[in-house]
Write a sequence for this structure.
């Protein structure tokens, strides 16, 4: 049986010995990286610099929420707006693995800059077991290059510290609850963020569309769960498809974009079943997206595929 208290105590001692100097952590405000930051800062205090990179692909209101969470954890942190850099690196890029590698490399470049300015020699990452298992090792094929593993450049100068690399998601949540990290119940969110929820080129305009649709999906499912109409799914979001279809708006022909809604039940993300969301709730989501976003979207579909054979994200 996994014991969160014991795990944290052991890791703090290990990290004290492993990091004699200064370290930086790439923290997205998600459960994994925030738990990693909380543990390492308990071990080495302000010798840890927590860096949040606003890539331009974050969810609605995310940067503001994240800085509040960091304040509550008394982290020594910086928020860097690197969106210009990321959008231009991804110009014309549509292939999922290429997107992931470019984003991974971009993250590391930003961190190397920050680490250098902070005179840090160590890079802490919130990598958990499914991240490296799915990114491939000697025994397995690569399914996806998770950005915090597959995107690491070979000439990286920082020494890597990954305190959560043996844990699965449910264990990380236990550690989060033990440490009172208020993101413990937050749904998982991928490192490459909304860039991989735009199928096709992640332009500012496309990312803005999927950001709005994701916010509607989150609001409606959380509201339905609060009203007791359903359980909150394990993960739930929107994907912008590169498909246009014909519709009607008033008495005029429309030719609009398509949003796919994805919601799944899972324990650790390794396998998943699509959520049986009540049709009334799906209808609310569809009506809101097609009315509030009618300038762009005229069709909403629901993804009813399990993992396997699909993955949770579309890219
Ligand atoms: P897939 O799509 O592979 O995702 O079934 C499994 C879980 O992992 C999340 N995910 C990521 N997490 N970096 C991460 O930290 C990534 O590059 C990444 N890609 C996918 C995904 O949201 C799901 O919860």
């Amino acid at each position: 049986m996994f014991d969160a208290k014991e795990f944290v105590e052991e890791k703090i001692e290990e990290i004290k010995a492993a990091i004699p100097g200064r370290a930086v952590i790439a923290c997205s405000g998600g459960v994994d990286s925030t738990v990693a930051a909380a543990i390492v800062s308990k071990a080495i205090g302000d010798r840890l610099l927590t860096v949040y990179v606003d890539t331009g692909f974050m969810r609605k209101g995310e940067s503001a929420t994240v800085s509040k969470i960091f304040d509550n954890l008394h982290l020594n942190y910086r928020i860097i707006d690197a969106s210009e850099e990321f959008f231009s690196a991804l110009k014309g890029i549509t292939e999922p693995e290429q997107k992931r590698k470019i984003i991974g490399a971009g993250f590391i470049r930003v961190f190397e800059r920050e680490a250098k300015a902070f005179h840090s020699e160590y890079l802490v990452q919130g990598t958990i077991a499914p991240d490296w298992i799915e990114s491939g090792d000697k025994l397995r094929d690569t399914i996806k290059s998770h950005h915090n593993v597959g995107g690491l450049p070979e000439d990286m100068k920082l020494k890597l510290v990954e305190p959560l690399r043996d844990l699965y998601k449910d264990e990380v949540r236990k550690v989060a609850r033990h440490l009172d990290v208020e993101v413990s119940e937050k749904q998982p969110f991928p490192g490459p963020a909304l860039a991989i929820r735009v199928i096709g080129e992640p332009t500012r305009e496309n990312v803005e569309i999927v950001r709005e649709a994701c916010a509607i999906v989150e609001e409606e499912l959380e509201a339905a769960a609060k009203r007791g109409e359903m359980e909150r799914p394990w993960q739930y979001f929107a994907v912008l498809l590169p498909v246009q279809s014909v519709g009607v708006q008033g008495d005029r022909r429309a030719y609009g974009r398509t949003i796919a809604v994805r919601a799944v039940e899972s324990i650790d993300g390794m396998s998943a079943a699509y959520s049986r969301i009540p049709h009334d709730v799906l209808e609310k989501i569809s009506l809101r997206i097609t009315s509030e976003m009618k300038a762009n979207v005229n069709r909403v579909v629901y993804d009813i595929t399990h993992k396997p054979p699909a993955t949770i994200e579309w890219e």
